[in-house]
Amino acid sequence: MTIRSEEFDDIYFSPEDGVAETEYVFLRGNNLPQNWLNKDHFTIAETGFGTGLNFFVAWDMFEQAASPQQSLHFVSFEKFPLTPEVIKDALSPWAARFGDKIDALIKHYPLRIKGWHRLNIAPQITLTLIFDDINNAIPELTLPIDAWFLDGFAPSKNPQMWDEPLFSAMRRCAHSETTAATFTAAGFVKRSMRDAGFDVKKDKGFGRKRDMLVATFSEEETAPHTPITKAPPQNIAIIGGGLGGTAAAHFLAQAGHKITLFEKENSLAAKASGNARGLYNPRFRKQYDTESIFYSSAYAVAYRTFKNIGADIDFTPCGAMHLLNNEQKQDRLPATKENWDWHDDHMRLISTADSEACCGIDLPHDALYLADSGFVSPHKLCHAFSANINIKLGIDNIDYAAYDAVILATGADFADFPELEPLNLHTVRGQITSLKAPDNVALNTVLCYGGYTTPANDGEIICGSSFQRWRDDTDLDPQDNIDNLAMLNAVLPKDQHIDQSQITGARTALRTAARDHFPIIGHLRDNLYVSTAHGSHGLLSSIMGGIILSEIISYNGASALPQNVLKKLSPQRFTHTK
After folding, report:
1. Cβ atoms within 10 Å of 399's Cβ, excluding its own
2. Rounded Cα distance, 157 and 155, in Å
3. Which of 271, 292, 308, 458 is the most exposed place for a label (fewest CB within 10 A)?
4. Spatial CB neighbours of 197, under 8 Å, sequence gap ≥ 6
5. Where would I find the H helices in 49-93?
6. Spatial CA neighbour of 214 closest among 190, 240, 247
């Protein structure tokens, strides 16, 4: 018995046999598996992920028919993502056939927050789940598509989905062999696909449905793309042993490339990436714009990455309270909650009256609460990322021509690389303070208030951080410790204030930033790529940077991420002259 959508009052799949419907409509309708037999990489785009049934059927057939050298990328849009528990229950009739695959999806399933969620779900299988309204998200898709599964709910139930943005994307992402199939035979769908350059035919529908549509892109001479091809394994040098470099090494090695990581210091994570604890939070903006898409997606993938690595990096998803403690935050953070439209399970506003139940202490301000946020050890994360990587310490001067690709993932030493001069990078000095955790401080979440503090861990609290653009030294400054503590005490209850005598240590480093306060990730020139300017949200952006570089190097520049995000991240925003 199939489940029904409350939003659209429609069923997710045929009550007769959902698997047979997928095989008939979408696989047979797109001439699969025959169409992927001569391709080393095949991309399917789907409208409406739902329970994931179409994905599992396609994955199962690919596993049976494809060679070990082939790979499948399944891109799917979903405005109302189901919980993992609902998905598993809905697919229980096929547990014997898809059980291991369902378990793999549950393991990798993203937080139910807006974003473009790229899941490396199996060695040959990549799933990109785009949690958003398709009309907002699909204009950002430029990936060449081999086959379209036009699913979702019936046009009569969900007319907004079957609209101009979808059919424009079908033309924009087409190549000469692109196909499409859909369960509906609605006249306007047929006309819209024809207007998008497809030769459309009616076919016998599944079960009790009289007709369905199948289509092939027919304007071969005007096709915007050629099919994606995989690059052979590359010999790649990465310069920089901090978060940016080790994350890139990790994801590129996963993709099968040969990696050598160079670090001029005598250890990894020797500078800004070497803190014992680091917070992972998105950079909040009032609107859900290009930067918000990046940070929302990066937050979700960072959480999944930390969870999969686990205790080895001190992963502690204790939650984070972001105080509305000035007029700017009182304006921005409620707007963030409304416009980012995350599920309440992952983001909600907490009143002062409810703060103690949430974080353990009475707060003087309302707060935006992120239940999945917390902290990890950046130092340990760098070492986890670089496990099984060929590492060369004490070296950062290499012959670029000896490698297929070179990634500059440098931090504060960017001035040593003339190639980076056009990016106009700068540093920001930050000092964190270690405190002996008093017994009377009951805080059990991260607290963010302009500064930040962690809950007690092994008898220690970390608070910080100073933010000094005008200083380029890393000398410890006792006044910074006093200032960090004063900012913390300003939001703690008076009976929980911490005395200066509890200061036990400090650490100072220089973070690297761009003049537009956004990371720089992508192709610079020739065989050079960059991942830098990660600033104060580097735990998120460095991981996303590694994923982006792995994708564009592995697939000859093709990426499933939003085109405006890639453009905004690109170093070309500084190197191109008007």
Report:
1. 8
2. 5
3. 458
4. 170, 171, 174, 217, 218, 219, 222
5. 53-65, 84-90
6. 190
What does the alpha-carbon distance between residue 169 and residue 141 come to, in Å, rounded to a whole number? 7
Structure confidence at residue 160 (pLDDT):
86
Alpha-carbon span 95 to 100, nearest angstrom: 8
Instruction: Please provide the DSSP assignment of 210-249 as one string.
Output: -EEEEEEE--GGG-SB----PPPPPEEEEE--SHHHHHHH
Average pLDDT, the chain: 93
Of 207, 165, 197, the closest CA to residue 20 belongs to 207
Q: CA angle, 293 as apex, 292 and 295 as ends, to 5°?
A: 60
DSSP assignments along 498-543, one per residue: --GGGEEEEEEEEEEE-TTSS-EEEEEETTEEEEE--GGGHHHHHH
**Which neighbouring-strand residues pair with 510?**
429
Whether 355 has a pLDDT exceeding 90, the answer reads yes
pTM score of the predicted model: 0.95
Instruction: List, in sequence order, the alpha helices (H) in 164-216.
Output: 164-172, 187-195
How many helices, marked H, and strands, marked E, lie in the chain?
A: 16, 26
Query: How many Cβ atoms sit within 10 Å of the Cβ of residue 253?
Result: 21
Residue with tokens 């070492």: 383
Two structure tokens written together for 386: 């670089």
Per-residue pLDDT band at 137 (split at 50, 70, 90): very high
Interval 494-529: pLDDT, tens = 989 999 999 999 999 999 999 999 999 999 999 999
Domains (range + CATH), the chain: 4-222 (3.40.50.150), 231-276+377-422+518-578 (3.50.50.60)
Q: What is the pLDDT of residues 368-385, one digit of tens each?
A: 999 999 999 999 999 999
On whether the CB atoms of residues 170 and 146 are closer than 8 A, the answer is no
Q: Which contiguous run of DSSP H or E holds residue 369?
A: strand 367-370
Could you give the CA distance from residue 352 to residue 461 in angstroms, rounded to a whole number?
23
105, two tokens: 């999806």
Task: Find the mean pLDDT for residues 227-238.
Answer: 94
Q: Is the pLDDT of residue 9 over 70?
A: no
Amino acid (one-letter) located at 87: I
Residues present in the chain in total: 578
Burial of residue 6 (number of CB atoms within 10 Å: 0-12, 13-18, 19+): exposed
Sheet holding 258-263, edge to edge: 390-393, 258-263, 235-239, 405-408, 528-532, 520-525
pLDDT at residue 1 greater than cutoff 60: no
| DSSP-derived secondary structure letter, 19 | H
CA distance 512 to 272: 9
Euclidean distance between CA atoms 22 and 56, whole angstroms: 10
CA distance 329 to 20: 52
CA atoms within 13 A on the CB side of 360: 17
Pairing of strands 147-150, 41-47: parallel
Residue closest to 430 by CA, chosen among 391, 382, 367, 484: 484
pLDDT above 60: residue 240: yes
Mean pLDDT confidence for 475-495: 95
Contact 460, 435 (CB under 8 A): yes
C-alpha–C-alpha distance, residues 289 and 301, integer Å: 18
Instruction: Kindly give the interhelix angle for 53-65 and 95-108, rounded to the nearest 10 degrees.
Output: 110
AA letter at 50: G
